[in-house]
User: Which sequence fits this backbone?
C-alpha cells in the first residue's frame, strides 16, 4: 500500500470515528450540577438543594422523535437528607425524552437517607424538561423537574424542585480525536 493510500485510509478512519461516535447507536452522556439558588426542598425539612445529576440519552437534542432518557446518577443533598438512585436496581431512572423537550420517567427508584434508617421509594410519573431554558441562561441545556417524596417518617412529604444547568457532552473531545487522526496522517506523509 502506498503512503498516500495509507494516509487517505487514516484520514477516512478519523472521519468515520467522528461520524460513528455521534451516531444514534451511541449513548450520549450529560452531567450537571444543581443550581442551589433554584433547587430546593420544601416541607418539614426546607432548604437549598445541592448535588449532581448524570444522564444518558439515546440521541442528542433537538429530537425528531422520542428517545431513551436515563438518569444514571443522582446525588441530591440538603441539611440532614440525601436522595440518590436505588443502588439495588440496574436502571432505576429509565424514561423517555420527547421532541418537545419534555421527559417522563414512569418509575424513578430512589433511596432516601436522613435521620431515620434509609428507605427505598418508587416515585411514579416523574416529569420535567431537558433542553434550552431561561432558568439556565449560562448553559446550553437545562434539566428541570419537581416531585414529591413521602419520607415515611416524621419528616412527612417533601417537595423537591430541581434545576440543573447541563453543558454540551464531550463533542470537543470527539473533534480533538478526529483532528489528531488528520495530524497523524499528515505527519506520516511528511516523514516519507
Assistant:
Amino acid at each position: 500500500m502506498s503512503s498516500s493510500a495509507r494516509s487517505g485510509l487514516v484520514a477516512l478512519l478519523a472521519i468515520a470515528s467522528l461520524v460513528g461516535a455521534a451516531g444514534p447507536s451511541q449513548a450520549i452522556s450529560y452531567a450537571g450540577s444543581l443550581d442551589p439558588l433554584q433547587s430546593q426542598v420544601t416541607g418539614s425539612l426546607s432548604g437549598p438543594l445541592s448535588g449532581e445529576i448524570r444522564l444518558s440519552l439515546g440521541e442528542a437534542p433537538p429530537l425528531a422523535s422520542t428517545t431513551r432518557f436515563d438518569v444514571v446518577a443522582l446525588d441530591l443533598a440538603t441539611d440532614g437528607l440525601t436522595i440518590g438512585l436505588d443502588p439495588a436496581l440496574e436502571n432505576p431512572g429509565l424514561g423517555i425524552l420527547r421532541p418537545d423537550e419534555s421527559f417522563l420517567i414512569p418509575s424513578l427508584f430512589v433511596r432516601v437517607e436522613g435521620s431515620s434508617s434509609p428507605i427505598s421509594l418508587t416515585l411514579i410519573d416523574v416529569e420535567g424538561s431537558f433542553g434550552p431554558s431561561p432558568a439556565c441562561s449560562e448553559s446550553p441545556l437545562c434539566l428541570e423537574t419537581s416531585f414529591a417524596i413521602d419520607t415515611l417518617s416524621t419528616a412527612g412529604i417533601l417537595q423537591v424542585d430541581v434545576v440543573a444547568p447541563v453543558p454540551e457532552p464531550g463533542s470537543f473531545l470527539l473533534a480533538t480525536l478526529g483532528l489528531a487522526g488528520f495530524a497523524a496522517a499528515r505527519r506520516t506523509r511528511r516523514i516519507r
About this structure: The domain at 29-168 is CATH 2.40.128 (Lipocalin).
